[in-house]
Amino acid sequence: MEALDRIPGFIELPEADIFPRPELRDFGNAAPAPLHLAVGIFDGVHLGHLRVIGAAVDAARRDGGRCGVLTFHPHPSRIFRPDDPTLLLMPAAMKNRRLFNAGVDYVVWKTFGPDFAALSADAFLPELRSALPTLTGVYVGENFRFGRGRKGDVAALAASGAKLGVQVRGEPRLTRGETPISSSRIRECLLRGAVAEANELLGRPYATLSTVTRGKRLGRQLGFPTLNLPWAPELLPRFGVYAARVRRPADPPADGLPAVANFGIRPTVEEGVEPRLECHVLTGNCPFSTGDHLLAEWLAFLRPEQRFASVDALRDRIGEDVTEARAFFARS
Question: Between 28 and which of 7, 33, 259, 263 could a Cys-Cys bridge form, CB atoms 3.0 to 4.6 Å apart?
Answer without folding.
Answer: 7
